[in-house]
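Re-run with default settings, no changes from the original entry. Doing this only to confirm the output is reproducible before filing.
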Amino acid sequence: MGECEITDCVTEHLSPWFTGPYGFVLRNACVLPFMPLPGALRFFDVEERV
């Protein structure tokens, strides 16, 4: 699990990871401690746990 900033949405990119038709350009990515969550095929908010 991790978090990052989405800085752009592109339709082409030189990265070998880009497979199109759209891709997000990310920055400031960091790894977060593992926390089991149900899967989702979209972005979703995660409540912080103490």
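The chain has a mean pLDDT of 86. The chain has no helices and two strands.
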